[in-house]
UniProtKB/TrEMBL annotation:
Database matches in SUPFAM superfamilies: N-terminal nucleophile aminohydrolases (Ntn hydrolases)
Domain DUF3700, residue spans: 2-197
Stated name of the protein: DUF3700 domain-containing protein
Domain of life: Eukaryota
Gene3D superfamilies in UniProt: Glutamine Phosphoribosylpyrophosphate, subunit 1, domain 1
Length: 198
């Protein structure tokens, strides 16, 4: 999966900007180049959504739908979520949020986000602490211009983030893509129920 957010949407920590990138022979790439290279490198079942200059999401479903490493993509009410991993307590969470039994993890994250956004005031960590499993997700609310991303603490799922040539934030589960795209300005996404809401 790949998510790119314009520098106006996300303010990454200053530590993510590496001064070594300025003197490195490998320069960071521009978002369009990163996005196109990701799509070209994937199988034909990859798809993407572009939100003008604000954001771009690209997703590749698992080749084997019964695979242990589940991946979900969902878009509802102008909110889009890419989810990797699984929630052990999805059934009880769906019941708690009034969702159908057939709702997957990405659908649940969208509903939890909408509850956080519309019916608050719930701090993000309160919603996240109820999630039990091995997971990482990136959610984008294109109407509100909000990004919500989290990674659990058990490190069963890995995400990385970095800075593109124009200052955009790049998030992916593909370390090689992040290294090649962001030069030295990248790091593992913070684990342990970390979240970022703008």
């Amino acid at each position: 999966m790949l998510a790119i957010f314009n520098k106006g949407l996300v303010n990454p920590p200053q530590e993510l900007h590496s001064p070594a990138s300025l003197s490195s022979s490998r320069k960071p790439k521009h978002p369009e180049e990163i996005f196109n290279e990701f799509l070209i490198s994937q199988s034909s079942n990859a798809f993407s959504i572009n939100f003008g200059n604000a954001a771009a999401l690209a997703y590749v479903p698992p080749e084997n739908p019964n695979s242990v490493s589940q991946r979900w993509f969902c878009g509802l009410h102008n909110v889009y979520c890419m989810f990797m991993g699984s929630l052990n307590n999805l059934s009880s969470l769906n019941k708690q949020y009034g969702l159908s039994k057939g709702s997957n993890e990405a659908m649940f994250v969208i509903e939890a986000y909408r509850t956080l956004r519309d019916r608050g005031p719930y701090p993000a960590h309160q919603v996240l602490r109820d999630l039990d499993g091995s997971f990482g997700f990136v959610l984008y609310d294109c109407k509100a211009g909000t990004i919500f991303a989290a990674l659990d603490a058990d490190e069963g799922v890995r995400l990385f983030w970095g800075i593109a040539a124009d200052g955009s934030v790049v998030i992916s589960d593909n370390l090689e893509l992040i290294k090649a795209s962001c030069a030295k300005s990248f790091a593992p996404f913070p684990a342990g129920m970390s979240s970022a809401i703008n």
